[in-house]
Design brief:
Layout lengths: L1 E4 L6 E4 L12 H11 L1 E4 L6 H9 L20 E3 L13 H8 L14 E10 L7 E5 H7 L2 H8 L2 E4 L1 H6 L3 H4 L10 E4 L1 E3 L6 E3 L5 E4 L4 H15 L6 E3 L6 E5 L3 E5 L9 E8 L6 H4 L15
Parallel strand pairs: 2-3
Antiparallel strand pairs: 1-2, 3-13, 4-15, 5-13, 5-15, 6-12, 6-14, 7-8, 7-11, 9-10
């Protein structure tokens, strides 16, 4: 495969690949190798329909299904969009758009679920005339360059995650909706080793509200310090979407956020996460039960 760098430290664009023709035998092994080594992959001028998009994602592992009860083997493809089910553009202050604004916080997807995500496979369907970029950083690079003192504080930390926490930072009413309260808090180690490359990455998200064993204020301060270090300007790759772009990123080793756009314009991405398995290092990030006890509500 022919590749070119997206950022000096992580991410590559893969050229001359038609993702509709990728199978478990043809193309995927090379794509998976690049995923493990570079954490972020870009494919341009793709024409994936919903079925093809799901087929591609399923090569990476089980498709995530955020519903109550047993997950469906083949869930519908979620859309990240300000377009309502009725086909209208939602108001900037509608809860649908407020939820999208919460995605403008630096985060990793699905840390609030009982099984976190390995990857996101996301494609641009409709883009705005300006803005709407997706910014990403490598938390593997951040971990490599983190000062020794901060790294030592994070190495054995267990972070507690709550979906409503990130939504409350945007709007308390949004955070009260069932979509954001239906899962219990989750606890994950703050470092996720890659079982293929052996490299560690900081594992953190805007959903993290506390550190097990620390008082609420001190825990939140550590979370903020780690996030600020990982998202310094020199670490950021900013992707300006064009229709047909497909990004695949490693949820174990990146943080990302959306950027504002003219909210009177439609912006629609198709996005499906893939759940992590033991072969992806899931067992490494699971903490001992004794460290996962809640420490109380997040700071107001």
């Amino acid at each position: 495969m022919r590749t070119s760098l997206l950022h000096a430290r992580f991410g590559v664009e893969i050229h001359d690949v038609d993702l509709t023709r990728v199978t478990a035998i043809e193309g995927y092994p090379e794509i998976r190798d690049a995923f493990e080594r570079h954490s972020l992959l870009l494919f341009r001028q793709q024409r994936l329909d919903d079925v093809q998009h799901l087929n591609l994602a399923a090569l990476f592992g089980p498709l995530e299904d955020r519903v109550k009860g047993p997950p469906r083997r083949r869930p519908p493809l979620p859309k990240v969009s300000n377009l309502t089910p009725g086909g209208q553009i939602a108001s900037e202050f509608d809860h649908q758009v407020l939820n999208l604004k919460a995605n403008q916080l630096w985060h990793t997807d699905s840390t609030f679920l009982p099984v976190p995500a390995l990857a996101n496979v996301i494609a641009a369907r409709v883009v705005s005339s300006s803005g709407g970029e997706t910014e990403l950083v490598s938390t593997r690079v951040a971990w490599q360059e983190m000062p020794a003192g901060l790294k030592e504080r994070a190495r054995d930390a267990v972070l507690l995650h709550r979906y409503a926490h990130s939504r409350a930072r945007i709007d308390p009413g949004l955070a009260a909706e069932e979509l954001f309260t239906m899962w219990p808090d989750q606890a994950w180690r703050a470092v996720w080793p890659n079982p293929v490359t052996g490299e560690d990455a900081l594992y953190i998200a805007s959903h993290a509200y506390a550190v097990a064993g620390m008082d609420a204020a001190a825990g939140q301060a550590l979370i903020e310090e780690l996030t600020a270090f990982a998202t310094r300007e020199q670490y950021v790759y900013s992707h300006r979407w064009t229709v047909g772009d497909v990004l695949i990123w490693d949820e174990r080793a990146t943080l990302h956020r959306g950027r504002p756009w003219p909210y009177e314009e439609e912006r629609t991405l198709a996005s499906i996460c893939v759940s992590a398995r033991d072969c992806d290092g899931f067992g490494f990030v699971q903490p001992p039960v004794s460290l996962a006890d809640p420490v109380g509500d997040p700071p107001a």
